[in-house]
Design a protein that fits this description.
Shape: rod-shaped
Strand order of the largest sheet: 1-2-5
Order of helices and strands: EEEEEEEEHHHHEHHH
Strand content: 15-25%
Structural class: alpha+beta
Helix content: 40-55%
Distance between the termini: 109 Å
Oligomer: single chain
Radius of gyration: 55 Å
Number of strands: 9
């Protein structure tokens, strides 16, 4: 595996760097910081664990210090998915030393971060080749949980506690990323076109329904208007006939049906002539005289008789 910069402290055996000769005294001392723990050796023999604070030690003693802080181990692994896509997976492992197992943490492993890298690479390369690229992006937490479980069981023996494992990034080849982006763009454009077509269809349907409702309302309004118009004309004619009957015959004699019809025809004829004379753009020339009213009356009667038959 390829590794990023590691922040894990270097484990190497060195003489006590912080042990200094006390002025005016026949011994040496060691100072352990609050975030450290130290192993005390004397003449090649382990003498004990030094807690944070000030300690008197022999001049020829050796102290191995280790940090008790949580450290971050970054691992970069290159592997291949089942659909033959090479990916770089960045994993962050956060660990710290068990205080109760400080001896194992100091003396059992010469390079703990390399051991952690090996376990991480083994788990990742055992899982990723069985997944597609899309499935890999969905299984980040699954991989992190598997790595943490494996490291916890393995590193606890050496005095290390695994706090958290994070899959920081999954980066496929640049050409694969471009292809995936193009596929996603095409899919989204197709979905947008389908949505637009569906919206246009809905608008057209709604417009057609609105037009249909308008036509129906106009037809109903026109029919109702014609009904009232005809009713008004009928009542007007009836009033005209009644007036003519009263004017011509008075109250003594009743007009016959034929005479009423003739009066109605003459009245309709005069109304028609009045409307023709009110036209602004048309002119009609036709012979007319009072003496010819009988002929007109006869022609109208014959015409209505032909339509009726």
């Amino acid at each position: 595996s390829r590794k990023a910069n590691l922040d894990f402290p270097q484990f190497q055996q060195t003489p006590l760097a912080s042990a200094t000769q006390a002025s005016g005294m026949g011994g040496c001392f060691a100072i352990v910081a609050p975030d450290e723990i130290a192993g005390h050796e004397l003449l090649g023999k382990f003498r004990g664990i030094l807690e944070p604070g000030f300690h008197w030690i022999a001049p020829w003693a050796i102290v191995h210090k280790r940090s008790m802080r949580i450290t971050d181990n970054r691992v970069l692994i290159e592997t291949k998915t089942i659909d033959n896509v090479f990916v770089h997976i960045k994993i962050s492992v956060q660990q710290m030393i068990f205080k109760d197992k400080a001896y194992e943490a100091i003396y059992r492993l010469s390079n703990p971060h390399m051991q952690i890298d090996s376990y991480v690479a083994d788990v990742v390369r055992g899982h990723v080749p069985t997944m597609t690229l899309d499935r890999l992006f969905e299984a980040k937490q699954e991989i992190a949980d598997e790595v943490k479980e494996r490291l916890t069981a393995a590193m606890q023996e050496y005095g290390f506690q695994i706090i958290q494992v994070l899959v920081v990034d999954i980066e496929p080849d640049q050409r694969v990323k471009r292809a995936m982006n193009e596929i996603n763009e095409s899919r989204r454009l197709r979905m947008a076109a389908e949505e637009k077509a569906e919206a246009d269809k809905l608008v057209m349907v709604k417009q057609a329904e609105a037009k249909k409702d308008i036509v129906i309302m106009q037809a109903e309004a026109e029919a109702e208007s014609k009904f009232f118009q005809g009713k008004g004309i009928a009542e007007a004619r009836q009033a005209i006939v009644e007036g003519m009957k009263e004017t011509i015959s008075g109250h003594d004699r009743q007009l016959s049906a034929v005479e009423v019809k003739n009066l109605l025809l003459v009245s309709q004829y005069m109304d028609t002539m009045e409307k023709l004379s009110q036209g602004a753009t048309s002119r009609i020339v036709m012979p007319h005289s009072l003496a010819g009213l009988a002929d007109v009356q006869e022609q109208i009667r014959k015409g209505l008789g032909g339509v009726t038959s």
